[in-house]
Amino acid sequence: MRDLILAMVKPLVDYPDHVEVETEEGASTITYKLSVHSEDMGKVIGKQGRVAKSIRTVVYAAAGSKQQKKIFLEIVE
């Protein structure tokens, strides 16, 4: 799942080397924390959050059938 997130986000940003994904796994959840360069934050979020929503939709669809845990994607500074 980490590779999928990286594959979607890196082409969108100006600083692909600063894209990082951390994974936190709980008892019933998996949280992916996406961090990008501060100048790229707007590109990843998009107008009215459309890009972020699209990334989340793809991640949730890809992981939903494979995992028995709830999946979350957070975009952090």
From TrEMBL:
Pfam families: KH_KhpA-B (PF13083). InterPro entries: KH_dom-like_a/b, KH_sf_prok-type, KhpA. Its main location: cytoplasm. Keywords: Cell shape, Cell wall biogenesis/degradation, Chaperone, Cytoplasm, RNA-binding. It is found in: Cytoplasm. Forms a complex with KhpB. A probable RNA chaperone. Forms a complex with KhpB which binds to cellular RNA and controls its expression. Plays a role in peptidoglycan (PG) homeostasis and cell length regulation. Belongs to the KhpA RNA-binding protein family. This is RNA-binding protein KhpA. The gene is khpA.
